[in-house]
Amino acid sequence: MRIFTTTRERLIRAGSLMLLALAAALFCLPSAARAEDQQQPAVFSAKQLSQAAELRDLALSSADAFRHVASLTMEVGPRLPGTTGDKAAVAWALATMRELGLQNVRAEDVMVPHWERGEIEVGITMPYPQTLAATALGGSIGTPAGGIEAPVIRVTDLDELAATPAAEVAGRIVFFDRRMQASRDGADYSLTVKARKDGPAKAAAKGAIAVIIRSVGTSSNRLPHTGKTTYDDAIRRIPAAAISNPDADMLATQLARGEAVTVKMTISARYLADERSANVIGEIRGAGRPDEIVLLAAHLDSWDLGTGAIDDAAGVGIVLETAAQIIRSGKKPARTIRVLLAADEESGQSGGKAYAEKYLADLHKHVVGMEADFGDGKVWRISTLFPEDRLEIASAIHALLEPLGIEMGDNETGNGADLSEFKKLGMPVISLGQDGTDYFDYHHTANDTLDKVDPDNLRQVVAAFVTTTWLAASGDVDFGFREPEEETKP
User: Fold this and answer.
1) What is the pTM of this model?
2) Using 50, 70 and 90 to split pLDDT, how confident is the model at 487?
3) Residue 307's pLDDT is what?
4) Residue 57: which H helix or E strand, with range?
5) Which of 214, 149, 206 is nearest to 181 (CA)?
6) Cα–Cα–Cα angle for 484, 234, 207, nearest 5°?
């Protein structure tokens, strides 16, 4: 027997062993792959995926959500809760759902606050008189008939107000001067809006007699942004107004000179008696499991300065056209697809709360919820709020959305005001995040009009919604339920 081998022979032998090992591995792979497939079946069937892709591609060429947006904004116009416009919107929604072929179309009564904006005049009186472009914040009280006039104190935000001695605030008008930054996801809104929501109550607690805020928006136009403010029943209420960004710059510049600046405000806003409005609901009844619900929501009301085109006629158009595309396709979902056009999202979310109260016993029949309330921007990201052991569902949905230019987001979405009550109780939520880079240029302003809505953008959004909706409604995928959030636990 030979003990020594040549280098060439050693290489040949080593190569042969490697080839044998590789062949064995390749021989075993199919069995291993089949075992893995048996242990981890596909989330959606080939038929579901094919149907969803077909609906997606059809929506890109045929969806006409813009038609609904144009109809609502032109035929009805602004839809402030409690007004004649609000009532006309309910009638429009009922007629439109029936025309599109939805089933079980109904209006479910909701009592809503009826606030009247009235007239407003705001201006600097000293040291350099200037008229300021202003609007009352939603829910603000009015001033005395002759108005109020007082020195202004500037703070950046609620934290700076909290650090300011009450003696420096008492008897003054507090000016909140935090500028909002634009971004695709609108992340800065949640930080900037705190002054609008809580500023008047916090300032009143320190003795302020009124509040002015820099508009919560990104526009450089001389148009103020309205929006809801809230009061504390234990603290006296004070008038509150927003001024446009250019006017906030002017006020800040005068204050920066170190001289005392005085402002006069006259506002005739007031609350009237509550009115009856309604959530409008329509369905595509499920053919296999009709008691299980995939919920699509948008809000029907709007502020009164513009015609509520991006906020939220666009969302109304998106969810209506999503349902219409499925109806026209002739495909029958297994689960019921329910469209909710909610009342009074803007001034208290009365509609979302009323829906949650009415359907609380059916909470766990709501397998997943989605909401459209971010204008007409294209969807760029899918995010979720699922139990951690259901994230493979999100990945499977994303695979069908990726051709639309949509990226995978996180599992921490906070979107969906009208879904918020059920979301707190653990209902899974899918957020199709739209590009909001310019959304806050128009949000809550007189510029929120139909010309800001892009029909091509809406087709892409509907394509994303119809794909996701079909995958959720066509099969039996269990999205699971999360643990209720702490404040909602019994």
Assistant:
1) 0.90
2) low
3) 98
4) helix 46-62
5) 214
6) 120
